[in-house]
Amino acid sequence: MKFIKTPVKGMCDMLPQDMELRNYVLGMIKETYKSYGFSEIETPVMEHIENLTGDQGGENEKLIFKVMKRGEELKRAMESEDNSLADSGMRYDLTVPLSRYYANNMGSLITPFKALQIGNVFRADKPQKGRFRQFTQCDIDILGDGSILAEIELIAATANVLTRIFSEIGISKFTVHVNDRRILKAMALFAGFSEESLSSVLISLDKMDKIGLDGIKEEMIANGHLAENVEKYISLLENITPEISCSEFCKFLKENYIEGEVIESIENTLDCARSMVHSDVTLMFDPTLVRGMAYYTGTIFEISIDGYNFSIAGGGRYDEIIGKFSNQKVPACGFSIGFERIITILNDNLDKITMEEKEKVAILIEKGASSELMLEAFNKAMKLRNEGKIVSVQPLSKNAKFQVEKLVSNGYSKVEKMYI
Amino acid sequence: MKFIKTPVKGMCDMLPQDMELRNYVLGMIKETYKSYGFSEIETPVMEHIENLTGDQGGENEKLIFKVMKRGEELKRAMESEDNSLADSGMRYDLTVPLSRYYANNMGSLITPFKALQIGNVFRADKPQKGRFRQFTQCDIDILGDGSILAEIELIAATANVLTRIFSEIGISKFTVHVNDRRILKAMALFAGFSEESLSSVLISLDKMDKIGLDGIKEEMIANGHLAENVEKYISLLENITPEISCSEFCKFLKENYIEGEVIESIENTLDCARSMVHSDVTLMFDPTLVRGMAYYTGTIFEISIDGYNFSIAGGGRYDEIIGKFSNQKVPACGFSIGFERIITILNDNLDKITMEEKEKVAILIEKGASSELMLEAFNKAMKLRNEGKIVSVQPLSKNAKFQVEKLVSNGYSKVEKMYI
Q1: What share of chain B is helix, strand, coil (3-state, %, to 5)?
Q2: What is the per-residue burial (b if ≥16 Cβ within 10 Å, else e) of A19-36?
């Protein structure tokens, strides 16, 4: 049997310096979110296969790592050839597990319930720079609050977390994009598309950043949509400017395709959240924002760093999922931070980050030392630890000079050698 | 498609109060271990199936959650009917991943490398009270140090972590049991058993606590061992007293079945570690300590709380595993804390534990509030957060009295209501 020393494809070993940065950032995230009243929770990394393949996760469902049945059950499944060899799978996000969690533990939780969940998720995606098959997500969610207070708290908290994390490396300009699934639907219906073609239309719109208006038009025609509808849709999109407000844009929809309440909600959300974040953060209504997950029902939002062409946080309202677990509809809204992307950016700017460190002392003992000498060394080490220092007791190696150099480069400011 | 609201069998949803206790304990574990120079690392929860089934994990290998191949590879495996449908699996401990990690990252790591790894492991075991299918392990390991300095640091650090964790609930009496695989082997050979029957002998010895000397004798005879050898083995075990030292016990082995160096190592380890721990902690040589994992090669140790009939930490030396990944033998020694057991005991004594908490304020806004009122509420919340308080802004519910009661019982000391 051959042992393989590399990690499973697309997954990472974290070195001590990686962990230091990750823990430093997680500390800021936890502290900030907790100041908004979010409580930490945890769910298992495995979920029932039924919950993962229930058409909530969109494209992510194709990327599930499935966990095999065991023992007699596996035997039966193999014999029956019905292909249901898996009884569980690795979660591809934290939202489906959270919805299950809420349905399961509702009786023990306060309403609204403000959850902070930090954990690994798994997708059998093609690995590339900054994209892994096991990666960390940091989610905050407010469950049981159908009002826009939830959206406002989520957006303000997340924008403020990002401002805090990036301030040290001199990045402060973020843009929060806000839209609503109901506006996306109204836009499509107004242009003449049917409800059935909505998802095809949104898949094209989602490519705005990459292929532009002309590309969208071309793709929609190629997908067999009526030229007339496509024209009307494109001319609607042509009205968009970075400064356009939700009510201004919705005027173009005419004929009551959208309720006034939706428009007012978005404007109030933007106004209130704006008053709670750093002045360098832009909050804008963005009718081209789509977001991929199938489960969103209302508001959707994303945060991008100005100058980077990807989002570092995204979320929205998903009022329908919890009901699928509990038969009781519960409004829900969440925001997820792209932790690995943040780490990638910070790693490129490590020289600007100073993490607080304790003084580190190494005590090196020559080989063959008597138990008396060892006792002396260990007692000295305990004394220094009680004074708040980090102390490591190790054998003195033959090449002491090299050993000391290595220790110094690993942050040991004091190295003491004890000879026989 | 039916959605299932309970977690996967044997796995747990962690409520906010669970997480508070877990984080509180993890904080103490991390801080104490870091003062000994251990650095945090992380490995993926999935491992190559080859690494998990290489006969290192003993009984645990039967309990592996296997992860299925995907796409074309799965198709090929199904058609070939060779049953190798899995390409990876969930780790059943942190030691095998750590050994792989060290072999893979050796060039970037200092020697000796002192690792702290906290993470979930997975075993498809029969669930029961305090035993889960996903559970947290906290391991410290020293890699690249073949001297007893490693054992001493590991034992002292772990005993001191436990003393710190349990001091609040009034538990201070622990016993550290120390033995060596080489002594176990010498005992068996001395009694006349062959090398091949060693594992059968040890499986019986491991039941000492449960079935006693008579039970062991009976089981060995039933297993077909020669009565003469069994007699000699039992009479050897009859010499054991709680106070017996390693050198005293080894005298009974006679005829040089064990090297003097091994005896001296154990005695020095016990003496040095004893000087570093709380006076309520007993360190003893225990020739009946076996430990199940197949990979141990030298010293083995366990810590039990006096009065509880299970161990809460265990470990030992495993000098052979890393070489299976890197073709280069690297000495290694580790200690693992049974985190879930600690949590179970602390949970039974929650009234004695005080965790530091920030002041919590709730601001409740009546439904239908104007954007001006909302702005006022959010600005007040931000001001209080900047003062270090935890503030949650929520809708005022119809039954305000019940809502306030709930908030107070969840730790909110101040609740402010804002009406239209």
Answers
A1: 45, 20, 35
A2: bbbbebbbeebbebbbbb
Separation in Å, CA of A65 to nearest CA in chain B: 6
Whether B319 and B285 have beta carbons less than 8 Å apart is answered as no
Of the pLDDT bands very low, low, confident and very high (cuts 50, 70, 90), residue B79 is: confident
Selected residue of B1, B11, B13, B48 to mutate for chain A interface (largest A Cβ count, 10 A): B13
Cβ contacts from A onto B, under 8 A: 272
Q: How many CB atoms lie within 10 A of CB B82?
A: 9
- For residue range B166-183, list pLDDT tens digits in order: 999 999 999 999 999 999
* Contact (CB, 8 A) for B390 and A34: yes
Q: How large is the average pLDDT for residues B316-345?
A: 94
In sequence order, the 6+-apart residues with CB closer than 8 A to the CB of B411 are B357, B360
Q: Cβ B393–A153 below 8 Å, yes or no?
A: yes
Distances (CA, A) of A16 to A223, B26, B52: 50, 17, 24
Quick check: helix, strand or coil at residue B340? Answer: helix
Angle at alpha carbon of residue A363, lines to B110 and A353, rounded to 5°: 50
- Give the burial class of B81: count Cβ atoms within 10 A of its Cβ; 0-12 exposed, 13-18 middle, 19 or more buried: exposed
Element (H, E) at B299: strand B299-305
Residue B246 — φ and ψ, nearest 5°?
-65, -45
- Inter-chain CB proximity B8 and A40 less than 8 Å: no
Question: Considering only CA atoms, which of A352, A349, A364, A350 is closest in space to residue A396?
Answer: A364
Selecting from A41, A392, A406 the residue whose C-beta is nearest the C-beta of B36 gives: A392
- Best of A1, A2, A3 to disrupt the B interface (most B CBs within 10 Å) is A3
Which residues lie below 8 Å from residue A299, measured CB to CB, with a gap of 6+? A148, A151, A178, A179, A180, A181, A265, A266, A269, A316, A317, A333
**Which amino acid, residue A75?**
K
B113-122 vs B134-143, strand pairing mode? antiparallel
What six digits make up the tokens of A366?
């020559």
Comparing CB atoms, the residue among A3, A37, A68 nearest residue B85 is A68
* Lookup: tokens for A225: 């949509």
Model confidence pLDDT, tens digit, residues A63-114: 999 999 998 888 888 888 666 899 999 999 999 999 999 999 999 999 999 9
Residue reference for tokens 């039974």: B348
Of residues B130, B146, B52, the one with CA closest to residue B95: B52
Residues 6+ positions from A223 with CB-CB distance below 8 Å: A200, A204
Report cis status (omega within 30 of 0) of the bond before B112: yes
- Within 8 A of B393 by CB-CB distance, chain A residues are 149, 152-153
Closest residue, chain B, to A43 (C-alpha):
B13
A227: its two tokens = 């030229």
- Helix intervals (H) in A37-147: 49-52, 71-80, 95-105
Q: Could you list the beta-strand ranges (E) of B331-377.
A: 332-338, 360-365
- DSSP-derived letter for residue A335 is E
Long-range contacts of residues A304-311, Cβ cutoff 8 Å, at least 24 apart: A304/A174, A304/A175, A304/A177, A305/A162, A305/A166, A305/A171, A305/A173, A305/A174, A305/A345, A306/A173, A306/A174, A306/A175, A306/A282, A307/A173, A308/A345, A309/A209, A310/A341, A311/A177, A311/A338
Residue A134, CB-side half-sphere exposure with 13 Å CA sphere: 19
Using the Cβ of A101 and the Cβ atoms of chain B, whether some distance falls under 8 Å is answered with yes
Is some CB atom of chain A closer than 8 A to the CB atom of B28?
no
What backbone torsions phi and psi does residue A141 show, to the nearest 5 degrees? -140, 145
A281-338 pLDDT per residue, tens: 999 999 999 997 678 999 999 999 998 888 999 999 999 999 999 989 999 999 999 9
Residues found in chain A:
420
Structure tokens, A377: 């060394």
The per-type count for chain B, helices as H runs and strands as E runs, is 15, 14
